[in-house]
Amino acid sequence: MRVLFSSWQDEVVDNRGVEPSGWKDASNLKLPAEFDKENNISAFIGWSGIILLKDSVNIVDMCSRYIEEVQKESCGKCFPCRIGTAVMEKLLKKIAIGKGEEPDLAQLENLGKDISNTSKCSIGQTGPMPILHALKYFRDDFAGAVKNRKPVSNGARYESKWTAPCYSACPTGMDIPAYIEFIKEWRPLESLQRIREASPMAASLGRACFHPCEKNCRRANVESAISICKLKRFAWDYEDLRSRFGERDKPVSKPVNTNKHSKEDKVAVFGAGPAGLSAAYYLALKGYRVTVFESLPVPGGMIGVGIPEYRVPKEALQRETNFIEDMGVEIRYNTPVGEDITIPQLRGQGYKAFFISTGAHISKKMGAEGEDAGYNGFVRGIEYLRDCVITKCYHVKDKRVIVVGGGNVAMDCCRTPIRNGAKEVTVVYRRTKKELPADPHEVHESEVEGVKYIFLAAPKRILAENGNVTGLECLKMELGEPDASGRRRPVEVKGSEFIVPADIILQAIGQDCDLSVLNGVEGIKLTKWQTIEADPDTFQTSVPYIFTGGDVFNGPLTIVDACGNARRAAESIDQYLSGKPVTISVPEKMDKVIKKLGAYNKDEKIGIKSGWERVPMPVIPLDTRVTTFEEVETGYTLEQAIEEASRCMRCYQVGMVALEKA
Fold it and tell me: In terms of domains, do 22 and 123 share one?
């Protein structure tokens, strides 16, 4: 990226005084040039340095405004940050208004170093860093401001936002350091309250989220990431157990919705999966009368009929759903929309807005000969997992099972037959183990439970006798050049066919969306992948009163992505029904800027001694888990949760942009 100046992550690129044609690139930067349609970014200042795209920004003014925002975010739990940044703010403001003195610069520099070296958390540790960079690389600007004794403000518009590496990676925008800190302070109910500001699905997310936040955890730069996901589960479990069974000294009651049905407007939500339930929850909190239409007889969408009981117990999911219903949400099960009832008919019944979150429940074809022949023993993976919850028709006891695929559905498909008594279970995947898209934890757990893997193999033909599956003919593969996913493309090795004996083949290579919900609706645009097209920020479709989110928008993705879509979509629906412009807020725009720039540096050297390892999640014995659907992970005790939460380094940091009209 070409910039006028950058000290980001201590990589200095200084093009001041150089013609633009001769500018050096800042290779580590991904700062967007556009803030929104009306404003461009001219500079960024934050936890890791300064970035100037243009010379129109007054560095003294920007530093003064930045440290003011840092001081606002200081929590007051340590003296150096709370008091020190206040003094820095006073000194910088003094210089910016033309009343600075030469000794102020040395005091600023010494103070910045002291605050950075002695503060408890990242606000104080990183807040002064760009000021120190400015004093080092723009000393003449500060000296000039002191000498001229005139105000330096150029009237620039600044916008700031706190962030954290884990927060920036979370699709729901969850304040992760805050809820972990509440647990550390023995305040798990307040932790859950903070979690619910971003998602009502703490029970499900705390068990089955693939935690992108943990890939952005700075503690991993020391020894291992915080168990962010499982601490979320602990907060929910704590309230759940005590609200059901009580507590001797402190009875626990779940929150109530004081805004319940305070508005007359009705909103219809299609699908009771994580996106639908989340959108319904936030709309109910705003007072809307929300009805969820669900085609299945159970809640949760793919959580309910795709994720097995040993990962997310159905009773826990039901209690999570009950809580959302208690907020004022009505759920109508066994009610598919698009057949007996349509969106136009519901509009006629007074529904003012619609949120479509019907998921992706149709299995993709794997392209093997015989998969449409109707052989007994060939089953779509999604259908098999759904059957295990609802109809229970497929029997695998003492049978050889092959699972084709390498994603998270494939992991559920291979671990489930183990518990149902399969003789052996083998996963066939066309790339290597390194390229498996499934959560590495799930892969490891499957291996522990006895699942075998055949890598670099692709299905060619289903073998059968008398209509019954007998095996799968496969082709050996080798890896070629990377494809659109960034993984190396598998290329077949001609003449390398081999046979894997099997009684049952489960196909789990991906899912498509059923769009029958749109029957009778005109004007909805679709993508080339046959998902619903919508604004990626607001989730409003080409039909203004219809919004969408989850897999029917993203394609098959994750629970946490669906929850994040839904939270934002609920805001958009509220804006639409309130007659306001449907748009994202300035803080959300800042989140997008920071996410693109990157809030986490995997190469950062953190001056903390390693050795405080992650608290292992307790699990049931192996001989129990492979013979039952009992939940494998039993959850942290209070003491274990506090121990794990105490490892958190509270990595809040502040970023600020300077803007100019586009």
Answer: yes
* 20 and 151 part of one domain: yes
Return d(Cα 551, Cα 565) in angstroms, integer. Answer: 10
Q: Are residues 443 and 520 in the same domain?
A: no
The residue behind tokens 């390498």 is: 406
Residues 527, 548: Cα–Cα separation, whole Å: 13
SS3 407: coil
Tell me how far apart the alpha carbons of residues 6 and 223 are, in angstroms, rounded to a whole number.
30
Closest CA to 407 of 436, 440, 378, 367: 436
- The answer to whether the beta carbons of residues 620 and 634 sit under 8 Å apart is yes
Q: Is 106 helix (H, G, I), strand (E, B) or coil?
A: helix
Report CA-CA distances (Å) from 310 to 225, 278, 487: 24, 23, 31
Q: Is residue 605 part of a domain?
A: no
C-alpha distance from residue 492 to each of 268, 479, 496 (Å): 48, 9, 8
Q: Using one digit for the tens of pLDDT, what is the confidence trace for 436-451?
A: 999 999 999 999 999 9
Shared domain for 40 and 156, answered yes or no, is yes
Do 518 and 632 lie in a common domain?
A: no
How far is Cα 585 from Cα 538, in angstroms, rounded to an integer? 10
Inter-helix orientation angle 129-137/59-73, to 10°: 170
One domain for residues 114 and 183: no
| CA 180 from centre of chain | 17
Whether 623 and 92 have beta carbons less than 8 Å apart is answered as no
Indicate the pLDDT class of residue 393, thresholds 50, 70 and 90. Answer: confident
405 neighbors 383 (Cβ within 8 angstroms):
no
DSSP state of 64: H
- Whether residue 21 is found in the same domain as residue 129: yes
Average confidence (pLDDT) over 248-259: 82
Q: Are residues 473 and 523 in the same domain?
A: no
The per-residue pLDDT for 330 is: 98
pTM of the model: 0.94
